[in-house]
Amino acid sequence: MEQEPNPFKHVTFMDTNCAAKAGMVTVAGGAMGFLMALFMNAVEMRDMDYGRTKQSTRYVLRRDINKMFGMAKGFAIFGAFYSIFECQLEKLRIRDDATNSFLSCMFSSMVLAAESVGWKGLMMSGLGGGMFGGVMYYVQIKFMNH
């Protein structure tokens, strides 16, 4: 009598623990946002004030660091919401597919846009975020299969 293969053979701790996954994604998202902001500030064209160099340098550095931490915070928060929503949807639907990615990105975008836009903007934000999630799911599948 042949034994059936175990479908949960390759399940890891991060696959079953939503809190651990969300924590890791939050830290990684914050780091990615900080590095992206660092790059964007490096290539940004800006006007230089050549008088009182020490004060203007201090002002520019303070402004740039605030921008970098702001972008890092945004990436970290989006990653946390996305990870939590996706993990819960996977457990609810008992499958991992593009619909989970679409809905997770949609919900994350809507939560982050909730206090800054009206209901039409909220719907557009959710639709744009959902389409981004669906595209990223298919890109991930394409690259993982090769």
From TrEMBL:
Transmembrane segments: 20-43, 64-85, 117-139
Subcellular compartments: Mitochondrion inner membrane
GO terms under biological process: protein insertion into mitochondrial inner membrane
Membrane topology, from the record: Multi-pass membrane protein
Alphabetized Pfam families for the sequence: Tim17
GO cellular component terms listed in the entry, alphabetical order: TIM22 mitochondrial import inner membrane insertion complex
InterPro entries for this protein: TIM22
Keywords associated with the record: Membrane, Mitochondrion, Mitochondrion inner membrane, Protein transport, Translocation, Transmembrane, Transmembrane helix, Transport
Domain of life from the UniProt record: Eukaryota
GO molecular-function terms, A-Z: mitochondrion targeting sequence binding; protein transmembrane transporter activity
Purpose of the protein: Essential core component of the TIM22 complex, a complex that mediates the import and insertion of multi-pass transmembrane proteins into the mitochondrial inner membrane. In the TIM22 complex, it constitutes the voltage-activated and signal-gated channel. Forms a twin-pore translocase that uses the membrane potential as external driving force in 2 voltage-dependent steps.
Family as reported in the entry's similarity comment: Belongs to the Tim17/Tim22/Tim23 family.
Quaternary organization: Component of the TIM22 complex.
Protein name: Mitochondrial import inner membrane translocase subunit TIM22
Organism, scientific name: Paramecium sonneborni
